[in-house]
Write a structure and sequence with these properties.
Length: 615
């Protein structure tokens, strides 16, 4: 039971609204039964034909009001009889109608206010969950996302969060409104006829047992459905991001078939899920109706016997109240189904929210105010998966003095990008340590560390925003003149001015409105504007044409004169002037030196040069 309502943990920041929702749900349950039970005294009296019957009741005097069926009915009979004698049955009927109308009005008003105060809870929880999941996604290390599908992550942040919203609404109703309606109805039935209510207590659990049996596998099926739906999201995300490749390789049919297969799997799971969920309500209603009909038969025979145990009016009122148990039981079955699906979503969401983030600030982390000396790799080894014997980096020892340009070269997969990614702590070392100015980067505040590092990646990462906002990304304040200056250094200013709105031009999804070279120059301008003391250039000029490459390379050479630069390059012509070239192979440093020294070694670097047209 504790796990069943675990989704309510998300409402802890909305205790005021939750309390008001519970209060009005209680009032709704009370007025629901009260509006019906009010008719019993009038029905009892209306069947009396002789005025002397009413006079006899009045002559007995005002009875004491007590919390028993007899005490309440005697008190109601006296006052109703008095009104009928003094003002007639029509007036008494009007009084009953007005009272029932007011009770019904209060019932519906309570229902509205219960939902009114539920709205900020369900929407607030959705907002909070999405904020938490986005924050966690930004916080988690890059290694986490290498094992997760982006589409599945998106599915959890959308459809699973909506399931939580419904589960919270249904949980509050399942805990308070519907059970209270049933409890108050049963209490009223006990007041009217304890003997007849005994049958209700004996038979109603049958309905609960049936619902539990039917709903048993809903959570498991729902979990499977959400996993498949996440695959659908992933295929859609990959397809929209790779349309050019798909069309170029005529892969439309392959992608379509792949999508349709997963979609069909999801369709089958969903059909089974809906059929099972939709089965619970009619089954429960049928069982409860059978119970009510049995009660109708038993109660009817009690009235027919004429023993005075149960009057006709009391029985009609009893049956009317008993019928009020059917809607809440139906709602409870629906709520139970939604909560089961919500539990599946909760587990998927918690998998993200509770994911361990190993890259965090240490308790004694210091702010990095400046970079003054050098970056040191001290016997560093690293594997993407802990315990993996296949290290991507193996016993790396490297010193990068301030103001020097270090180039990393080697075949794809040799560990160049991974080594550079260790400096801003995108990954943490498994063995060894990395130090900046003699301080382990594990003891440097992560945000302050990354503020001192500028990165230009091989793939131009741009956002669906204006050119200016892409260049100034991450900066809270900026000087527009410096933005233009950075764009000029990156050889981007001229083509920016030719855009429809200049620097305010929206460049589309991932910068799709720009050419590859233009996107890369925007990325370079972004790094230049940040003006960091440490630069990481991962194939920064790979997407440029020959003319633009020469211009940007000259600009980068000037830019790197007073900065510490780590340049990753496949095109060796771009790193001939580096202070030191580190040649890597299978995670090891196999050669090091400047361009001429490495050529003289006639080793691996020389072979790489010979394979390229190098001038």
């Amino acid at each position: 039971m504790k796990k069943l309502f675990s989704v309510l943990k998300y409402t802890k920041d909305y205790k005021g609204f939750t309390g008001l929702n519970i209060l009005f749900n209680i009032l709704f349950a009370v007025f629901s039964v009260f509006s019906i039970s009010l008719t019993i005294p009038f029905l009892e009296l209306i069947f009396k034909k002789d005025v002397s019957d009413y006079q006899t009741i009045v002559n007995q005097g005002i009875p004491a009001l007590s919390l028993s069926m007899k005490g309440i009915t005697d008190w109601a009979y006296y006052h109703m009889s008095f009104i009928i004698i003094e003002q007639g049955k029509a007036h008494a009927l009007m009084l009953i109608c007005v009272t029932v109308f007011v009770a019904t009005l209060l019932k519906n008003a309570s229902r509205y206010f219960a939902m009114y105060f539920l709205a900020p809870i369900r929407n607030g929880v959705v907002k909070d969950l999405r904020n938490k999941m986005m924050h966690k996604s930004l916080e988690l290390p890059l290694s986490y996302f290498s094992d997760e599908r982006k589409g599945d992550m998106m599915s959890r942040m959308t459809t699973d969060v909506i399931e939580i919203e419904w589960s919270i609404m249904q949980s509050l109703e399942l805990i308070f409104r519907e059970p209270l309606t049933i409890i108050i109805s049963l209490a009223t039935l006990i007041f009217i006829s304890p003997y007849l209510t005994l049958y209700v207590f004996l038979l109603l659990p049958v309905a609960g047992l049936v619902v539990a049996l039917v709903s048993k596998s809903l959570k498991r099926r729902s979990t499977k459905g959400k996993e498949v739906f996440g695959q659908l999201f992933n295929i859609m995300e990959e397809t929209l991001g790779a349309l050019k490749v798909i069309k170029a390789f005529t892969g439309e049919r392959f992608v379509q078939n792949k999508f349709e297969k997963v979609n069909e799997d999801y369709n089958k799971i969903s059909i089974g899920l809906y059929r099972r969920a939709d089965l619970t309500s009619p089954i429960s209603e049928t069982v409860v109706l059978g119970v009510l009909l049995l009660i109708l038969y038993i109660g009817g025979t009690m009235v027919f016997d004429g023993m005075g145990v149960l009057s006709g009016a009391a029985f009609l009122g009893y049956f009317a109240v008993a019928s009020q148990i059917v809607p809440p039981i139906k709602q409870i079955t629906l709520a139970y189904n939604n909560i089961q699906k919500g539990l599946a979503s909760e587990e998927r969401i918690d998998k993200i929210l509770n994911a361990e983030n190993p890259i965090v600030n240490s308790s004694n982390a210091v702010k990095m105010e400046d970079f003054t000396s050098k970056i040191e790799f001290d016997n560093v080894s690293f594997a993407y998966h802990k315990g993996d014997t296949g290290y991507v980096l193996k016993n790396i020892n490297l010193s990068i003095p301030k103001g020097k340009t270090i180039a990393l070269v080697g075949q794809s997969g040799s560990g160049k990008t991974t080594l550079a990614d260790m400096i801003p702590r995108f990954y943490d070392t498994d063995l060894g340590d990395i130090k900046i100015d003699g301080i382990s980067i594990r003891n440097i505040d992560i945000e302050s560390l990354r503020k001192h590092i500028g990165v230009v990646t091989q793939e131009s990462i741009l956002f669906n925003d204006t050119i200016e906002n892409n260049i100034t990304f991450g900066l809270e304040t900026f000087d527009k003149e410096k933005v233009v200056e950075a764009a000029k250094v990156a050889n981007a200013h001229e083509f920016i001015l030719k855009q429809s709105n200049g620097y305010q031009t929206n460049i589309g999804d991932r910068g799709g409105k720009l050419s590859g070279g233009q996107r890369q120059r925007i990325s370079i301008a972004r790094a230049i504007l940040k003006n960091p003391p440490i630069l990481i250039l991962d194939e920064a000029t790979s997407a440029l044409d020959t003319e633009s490459e020469r211009l940007v390379q000259d600009a980068l050479t000037n830019l790197m004169k007073n900065r510490t630069s780590i340049v990753i390059a496949h095109r060796l012509s771009t790193i001939a002037n580096a202070d030191e070239i580190i040649v890597m192979n299978n995670g090891d440093i196999i050669e090091r030196g400047n361009h001429n020294e490495l050529l003289a070694l006639n080793g691996f670097y020389k072979k790489l040069c010979d394979m390229q047209s190098f001038k």
